[in-house]
Design brief:
14 helices, eight-stranded parallel β-barrel, TIM Barrel, 9 strands, binds ligand G3I, 322 residues, alpha/beta, GH, globular, single chain
């Protein structure tokens, strides 16, 4: 399937979320990443629990490995994520501080991490998943301790620490919940209008082969209408969204998935060039997808199969820019 590579064929940056262990130990994986992509995101290595194991300790080992790999191989690095309600170190969940101490915790983490990678990480998911599907603010530890104003301040702390890094608000559900989509768009529009340094919006797009084209179009074009850069930041297309324990991979499903990849790429390619920050898949192959272990089901969400071979989905991506 296809000749050349995604990075040669696509008119915008194309990336994947990487597992540092696989990058270090799996030659097939590493070589495929080198060949196909020109942007990388750490799947887990830049989350707070990975980088900041205790209040005064940072562990840069895996994240630095990924950044060095990217530099050696000419890849852009997108940072994920400075602030999230999940994957927090235990000490944060247990932190017994005043409002001012919580603010300092947020500020220090962001400034230290962004400062450490200044000039090496091109862009950051500053805040990840602050909204619920019904459009309300998630009642995260950050909202509980600091109120929703922490979002604007997180962007400002990141901007101060590296004025050249592009700053994104990242979330999921744009394509399946019109209510959530409207809330996300309102959040980023209000941030921008009040002078908060936000450059882009990340559409995770963990989607499914039978998501409607109309919903996918609405997600992409509504995000683009903000004028912000748009990153399809965590794309994968599930074939088994109903969690069948016995489903098998068929050419029919593979072709439906290819058509959906094609549609997403085609729609993304139709937004203004200056807003196309790129498209990143969440993981590299079906063998390393987060979906089967998370939902305990078989699935095949990515453009490469368990043997690192290109699937119909890969051709679908190429067809999207023909
Ligand atoms: O590394 C430990 C291992 O030592 C331990 O034995 C095992 C037992 O649970 O856990 C392992 O850690 C897991 C880690 O992935 C590495 O595999 C965590 O439990 C697990 O929670 C973690 O899941 C990650 C999840 O985010 C939570 O951080 C997934 O790999 C990662 O793909 C997923 O990514 C998220 C994005 O950050 C945000 N958007 C949604 C996306 C998918 O959920």
């Amino acid at each position: 399937i296809g000749t050349g590579s995604l990075k040669e064929k696509l008119p915008f940056p194309v990336g994947a979320a990487l597992n540092v262990g696989s990058l270090k130990n799996n030659t097939n994986y590493r070589n495929l990443v080198i060949k196909e992509f020109n942007s990388v995101t750490a799947e887990n290595a830049m989350k707070m629990n990975a980088l900041h194991p205790s209040i005064d300790t940072y562990n840069w080992t895996d994240a630095d490995y990924l950044v060095d790999f990217a530099k050696t191989n000419g890849k852009r690095v997108h940072g994920h994520t400075l602030n999230w309600y999940k994957s927090l170190p235990t000490w944060v969940n247990n932190f017994n501080g005043t409002t001012a101490q919580w603010e300092d915790l947020l500020k220090t983490h962001i400034e230290t991490v962004v400062g450490h990678f200044k000039g090496k990480v091109a862009s950051w998911d500053v805040v990840n998943e602050a909204l619920e599907d019904d459009g309300t603010y998630r009642n995260s530890i950050w909202v509980q301790k600091l109120g929703v104003g922490y979002i604007a301040r997180a962007f400002q702390y990141a901007r101060n620490a590296d004025p050249d890094a592009l700053l994104f608000y990242n979330d999921y559900g744009h394509e399946y919940s019109a209510t959530k989509r409207a809330a996300i768009i309102k959040l980023v529009t209000d941030l921008k209008a009040s002078g908060v340094p936000i450059d882009g919006i990340g559409l995770q797009m963990h989607t499914r082969y039978n998501q409607t084209d109309a919903n996918l179009t609405a997600a992409i074009t509504t995000a683009a209408a903000t004028g912000l850069k748009v990153h399809i930041s965590e794309l994968d297309i599930a074939l088994n969204p109903d969690n069948s324990p016995t489903l098998t991979y068929t050419t029919e499903l593979a072709d439906l998935q290819a058509a959906k990849y094609k549609f997403i790429v085609k729609t993304y390619n139709s937004i203004p060039k200056s807003q196309q920050y790129g498209l990143t898949t969440w993981n590299v192959t079906d063998a390393d997808s987060w979906i089967p272990p998370t939902y305990n089901r078989p699935d095949w969400p990515l453009p490469f199969d368990h043997l690192y071979q290109r699937k119909a989905a890969y051709q679908g991506i190429l067809d999207g820019v023909k």
